[in-house]
Amino acid sequence: MERKKNLTVSYSLVQAAYWMNFCLVSGFAAVFLQGLGYNNAELGLVLAVGNLFGAVLGPVLSSLIDRFESVTPPRLIVPLLALETGSLILLLFVPSKGLAASLGYILFIAFCIALNSMYLKLYVDLLHSGAEINYGVARGMGSLAYVIMSVGLGAVIQAVGIRSMPVGGLVLVLLQLAALFFILRLAPPRVGTQESVRGSGLLAFVKNNPRFSIMLLGTALIFFSHNALCNFLINVTRAVGGGTGTMGYLNGFMAAVEIPVMLLYAKTLGKRNSGSVLRWAFIFFALKACAMALASSVPALFAAFILQAPSYAVYTSAIVAYVEKTIAYEDSAKAQSLAFTMTTVGSVLASVIAGRLYDILPSSSVLWIAAGVCAAGVLISVFSVKSEKVR
Fold first, then answer.
1. What is the rounded end-to-end Cα distance, in angstroms, of the chain?
2. Which residue in 54, 386, 343, 389 sits closest to 210, CA to CA?
3. DSSP-assigned letter for residue 310
4. Can you tell me whether residue 345 is helix, strand or coil?
5. 5: which strand partners?
6. What are the pLDDT digits (tens) for 328-349?
7. Taking a C-beta distance cutoff of 8 angstroms, is the pair 131, 188 a contact?
8. Whole-prediction pTM
9. Which of 312-316, 336-340, 386-390 is least confident?
10. Cα angle 211-213-217, degrees, rounded to a multiple of 5
């Protein structure tokens, strides 16, 4: 038998470049927009519109991949990166809050979110074409890159100012292009080709997969809670006596605790039923939300973020395997994209609702509200996950 080509290292480069970019656009959004003069409600609206645009764009592009043989992830990634470059150039020169700044950041978020759907589909296609990739290891390298970016960018912004963000974004676009071309050079010749069986449309897919769709609804509520914290981490950090530098370290620590879980997932939890693993991850999201609401100091926030490991880190690895095992390949792009999109929908809700709440309530009160929403999402998700493989 021909030995499968191992592309874990090259796909790790793709993940590292992407998650550094995501750290910049998401983890430091409040810092950048507040620096331009936005209040919490205004920056929440910008984040909501950007996330909503990305939540629509990702599945739409993924549906095109499933339905048309000529549409492949590599053919969409380069244009998306070009569009992201345009938004970053705009942000580099905007003087203060206004239509240009809002539009630039909305597009920056949207294109970044849509890119993740393309990278997930690229992973599925590589596997289907005969490559071997340890997704947990690759995603762990993405989290490691996120840590480095978060700690480094927090210090740079504090020393240089917020204009360092769009400059850093332009560098990361080039890194993503380099990583893409590198992995495509090594990929099996069949990558990007599709089967003769075409996937269904988005509405038909939702109708044909009701339990999966209900699980996605619960996931959106869980990630409302997650993003009520992450999108406004600067507010939470300041409420317990920290600042921008502290927030950067918190962001880095949050990503750091994910790394061991992701690196070891394939050899440990990856051997278990992915549905059962997902259920436990959902439960730990609720525990993490309560721990965050209880935290009243910077050390307590660091301690609460330890629960990022059994919640977000396990979920991120398990959901990709779960979709791969329970959804037909011809619908894989939509399914992977929709799973990631639910995290984005949660971010949209958090940006609009939590942004307003942070303006009128103490941070601890907002986090308790988020914990309640998370508990409801966990109940929905736990009871809608399938424990057994269907194919």
1. 24
2. 386
3. I
4. helix
5. 131
6. 777 777 777 788 778 878 877 8
7. yes
8. 0.74
9. 386-390
10. 115
